[in-house]
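Handover notes (outgoing to incoming on-call)

Open items:
1. Transmembrane channel-like protein: sequence verified, structure written out, both below. Nothing else pending on this one.
2. Nothing else urgent.
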Amino acid sequence: LLCLGTTVGCTMAVYAFSELMIKSPVSADQEGALLALPVVVCLLNLGAPYLFRCLAALERQDSPVLEVYLAICRNLIFKMAILGILCYHWLGRRVGTLQDQCWENFVGQELYRLTVLDFIFVLLDTLFGELVWRLISEKKLKRREKPEFDIAGNVLELIYGQTLTWLGVLFCPLLPAIQIIKLLLIFYVKKTSLLANCQAPRRPWLASHMSTVFVSLLCFPSFLGAAVFLCYAVWQVKPSSTCGPFRTLDTMYEAGKVWVRRLEAAGPRVSWLPWVHRYLVENTFPVYLVSALLLAVIYLNIQVVKGQRRVICLLKEQISNEGEDKVFLINRLHSVYERKERSRVGRSQEAERLVDGPDAW
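Transmembrane channel-like protein structure tokens:
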């Protein structure tokens, strides 16, 4: 309840601040004020995981898997809620207020600011959250142990940065190149900080599990959310009338129809392209068919994975039973050996008494 309440409160704060930015527009000579909303978002993204970590420390989960899953889910819900509010702010509110301006440039600039500031705050988090905390724990608190490396937080940072890139690839085409440079720098900074300032978690965690979680969270919530955002911008939002290649159209999607009409008027040599567009792109049946096939493949893969897990569980149980059988057989052999030893020792002692009897007599 506290984590969900924190998420709702931060989301409402971002929404209220974005509405305040709309009501008090920034003039041309105050462009630095446009950094206010990205800075607020980055500060919340920086502070909320530490709060979630403190709340998780009170739960004292016995399972490390469950602890990491809860941390990832809480941070993921928080970040996706913030991004959802920002997407509504850009396409739902800003498009209406920027009637005579290029709203595509504004959205691209906002995502560019968020990407750059996210990189800066990741560096600050690495510097103050890991280096300074290690120095404080060693110098002031006199602790020999270094702080543990936060697996869930670092995974979510990667997913959040990639989601920003997917959201802005239509409006800021050079954003993927910036993301590549950002990831390279973050990799070496995190590697250096990990070796110098952190220790491995006390509870073991398999890298294969984290890879599966990373791919799942990257594909389903992040990629699908970014795809919905871009599809809505392409199919529903009217382009700006002052800039861009779509300024004379009602939607960006109509550019394909205009292109097809021009192909039809070009001549019979390219008449097959309009046919392909009409029956494979505009027609909904192929889309439904491909979606059904994709869902079937996903379902079959899920069933195969479930079957493999069931087989693995049965094999583990069989190995455990064989181990118990071997222990039982070893114990039985030990007991039989001990009885034979006792009987042999008893017979030898009896023989010694029989031999020593006449001498004593």
